[in-house]
Specification:
The complex is a heterodimer of chains A (307) and B (260). With 307 residues, chain A is of the alpha/beta class. Chain A has 2 domains: 215 residues, Rossmann fold; 64 residues, Alpha-Beta Plaits, CATH 3.30.70. Helices cover 33% and strands 27% of the residues of chain A. Chain A contains 11 helices and 14 strands. The longest helix of chain A has 18 residues. Chain A is elongated and about 80 Å long. Chain A starts with a strand and ends in an 8-residue tail after the last helix. Chain B is 76% helix and 0% strand. Chain B has one domain. The longest helix of chain B has 33 residues. Chain B has 260 residues and is mostly helical. The chains are: A alpha/beta (307), B mainly alpha (260). Chains A and B meet through α2 and α3 of A and α1 of B.
């Protein structure tokens, strides 16, 4: 079966707030599905429903073809999860916290604790109590707990929160390796598109509880808008010259000009020639591609001035 | 069976490593030591006079013999036990919320019912340990102070009454476990314990003690022939029902509630 995670019209309401609305998605085997949304968009509620921690008001979720249900203990053997900020028993050491999970995951091999500590670079903190760990190492411990049983499916809620750039890189590489070389299916939520787009194979954007877009990562670049940014010694005159040639240029907050029409800017050389011929040689002519963050904000309907 | 055993071993590990275990042991050692001090003061009126409040309290101990001391120990396990056992249960169940580790133990191959069972087993064993400590330290103190009136028959009767009272008190832990889940804290169930203790006092005063679960162990601990304090068959049924209802509600909450 190629369809590993499937939800059908998953809905959850809290009093007057519709946290998740008719959410239907599919995640295929070996895919890294980036689940993107602002804080409060419904990511964590969805993840908790996928893990049987919250019952949906409507709809249904399947993992590996089995209906998600808290009592379906066989299902949880195959899944590793991390939900929001990972916490551990503060008076237990890193090793003891992992030992707790090893026993509750019914793993007979005691060496799984040591190997997962090595994988997550926690060996040097093995005997440190969880309450004395830095935020980043507490996050690593949370990830170690989700990976200790080498699951086929990983459901991770903002797993790189609190990690420094090198930590984020390591986790990204680790997850990419698990997906590419071990066929692990990963469902990962984040509110940072730039980070997710670096390794997710598909991205779903959730906003106000609704899945508003699903895209394959390679398509993402094509969807980002391009603009031509121009600066001359007299931008007011340059704007007028461009307008005379049916080219609309807008002022930017940093006192430059910007041409948003993608068909017009397909030949920036022609625009440069036009300006030079009018004694307005551009001191700057730059094709600016919308960054992923701006694309994400535009998709969910939030404008960003500094684009 | 492996699932229950593993859940039990995890709860034991967590309990063994917690400071709360040591704190409760210290408290349950301290209580009979204080009782011993009271008996000592009561038996030495010249000291009682010099000790102000302690001396006055000590006079309340009445007869300073073994029957009086045994009765005091039985009533202590009913009252201190209600609070202490309630605290232990609140902590065992509520810690997952205060430590925010609840989400780690919900989607596992070990069923939630096994985790609930393991928690109850550990809480009960912990409470029995505390009851034993109170018993052993209390008897040792009494022996050290050479309290008069010891007899093997009296000791045997007291032991049976003491441990039966402890077990009846233990049955009241299940509603506390439910409230620890429902309120997602340790404070609310502790509030319940204190409230039920106050209610037990009032129920006793107006003659409803035999029908209020939280008053029943206290009534059991006093002499059976005390007027108005007699328990009925219905009293034991009420207590058993409270235990079953509390266990069922706890299990249902763990299985069905939304865990945010």
């Amino acid at each position: 079966m190629d369809e590993i995670i499937r939800t059908e019209k998953l809905t959850k309401k809290y009093k007057d707030v519709l946290a998740v609305s008719d959410l239907s998605l599919n995640v295929r085997r070996g895919e890294i599905y980036g689940f993107l949304g602002l804080n409060g968009a419904g990511k964590t509620t969805t993840i908790r429903m996928l893990l049987g921690m919250i019952s949906p008001d409507k709809g249904i979720a399947f993992i590996n073809g089995k209906k998600v249900h808290p009592g379906n203990t066989g299902l949880w053997k195959e899944i590793g999860s991390l939900v929001e900020i990972p916490y551990s028993y503060p008076d237990l050491t890193v090793k003891e916290n992992l030992e707790v999970i090893r026993r509750l995951r019914l793993l007979d091999d005691k060496s799984t604790v040591t190997s997962v500590m090595e994988k997550l670079k926690l060996t040097q903190y093995a005997n440190r109590k969880a309450k004395n760990l830095s935020h980043g190492n507490a996050q690593r411990l949370g990830l170690a707990k989700s990976l200790i049983h080498n699951p086929n499916i990983l459901i991770l809620d903002e797993p790189t929160n609190g990690l420094d750039p090198s930590g984020i890189y390591e986790i990204r590489e680790l997850l990419s390796d698990l997906s590419k070389n071990h066929g692990v299916t990963i469902f990962i939520s984040s509110h940072i598109l730039g980070e997710i787009s670096r390794f997710a194979t598909r991205i779903g954007i959730i906003h106000n509880g609704e899945l508003i877009q699903e895209i394959n990562t390679p398509q993402l670049e094509q969807l980002c808008q391009k603009r031509l940014k121009i600066n001359t010694k007299n931008n007011d005159r340059a704007k007028a010259v461009l307008l005379q040639n049916s080219i609309i240029a807008n002022d930017t907050p940093d006192n430059m000009l910007e041409i948003p029409d993608e068909s017009t800017i397909s030949d920036p050389g022609a625009i440069a020639t036009l300006l030079v011929n009018n004694q307005l040689p551009p001191s700057l002519l730059n094709m600016v591609e919308e960054d992923l963050e701006s694309y994400f904000l535009r998709t969910i309907g939030i404008k960003r001035e500094s684009l | 069976m492996k699932k229950i055993w593993n859940a039990l071993s995890v709860e034991f590990l967590k309990t063994r490593k917690s400071k709360i275990l040591l704190i409760t042991i210290i408290v349950f050692t301290f209580v009979p030591l204080m009782m011993g001090l009271m008996v000592f003061v009561a038996r030495n009126p010249e000291i009682a006079g010099k000790m102000g409040m302690v001396g006055t309290k000590a006079k309340m101990f009445g007869e300073n013999d073994w029957p009086g001391f045994f009765a005091m120990l039985s009533q202590t396990i009913a009252s201190i036990g209600l609070v202490g056992f309630g605290f232990v249960t609140s902590w065992v169940f509520g810690r997952e919320h205060t430590d925010r580790t609840m989400k780690d133990i919900l989607a596992l191959p070990v069923a939630r019912s096994s985790i609930v069972l393991a928690k109850f087993v550990v809480a009960f064993l912990w409470c029995i340990l505390l009851a034993l400590i109170l018993f052993v330290v209390g008897i040792s103190i009494g022996q050290l102070m050479h309290i008069p009136g010891w007899s093997a028959g009296l000791f045997s009767q007291f032991s049976s009454n003491y441990f039966s009272t402890a077990l009846l008190t233990l049955l009241l832990c299940t509603p506390v476990a439910w409230l620890a889940g429902y309120s997602r804290s340790i404070i609310a169930p502790l509030g319940l314990v204190i409230l039920t203790m106050i209610m037990a006092q009032f129920a006793g005063l107006i003659g409803l003690g035999p029908y209020l679960p939280w008053a029943i162990p206290g009534l059991f601990s006093v002499a059976r022939d005390t007027p108005g304090f007699q328990l009925h068959f219905a009293s034991y049924v009420i207590l058993a029902f409270t235990f079953i209802l509390g266990y069922w509600a706890t299990l249902r909450w763990w299985r069905k509630a939304d865990h945010h």
